[in-house]
Fold this sequence. Notes:
By secondary structure, the protein is an alpha+beta fold. Helices cover 45% and strands 12% of the residues. The chain has four helices and four strands; from the N terminus they run ααββααββ. A hairpin with a 2-residue loop joins strand 3 (136-142) and strand 4.
Amino acid sequence: MPDQIPFPPHEELTPLARERRDAMLPALLSEVRRVRRRRTATRIASVGGACALAFGVLALALLRTSPLATSQPLAKVPTLPTLDTPHSESQTVHIEIVQSSPDVLERLSLRAPSLVQVEYINTDQALALLESTGDRYGIIEIAGRVEFQLIAQR
């Protein structure tokens, strides 16, 4: 068994080799301590970052679902009296932001008079009307439906 290293190996070292080994030991121990501290700091930083991220996500979730954030109206201005002027008689102004109301569009839309006149024309008249703009159009009939296709622009 010549391949095996005799135990303990330092007994066969020369005195000069023993001195070199003993001189290297403090440097190696300080390097091991430095590497251990760096690994510990990295582990602490990664755990702290993960905790901070989890608390941030939790805080955002709580803020988005808090009853104060969802139930408060956007804005509401109380009724204010106007200044007395010779032309106005103690009128009050009431301003309110409407969040949802089914008849808002009906109340605020302008209604056109019902004097709309519908005139039906045939395809030749429609084609002549379109070509009066200076562009050329063609007619495509598909399953009883007529479409006008632009062929060339002016």
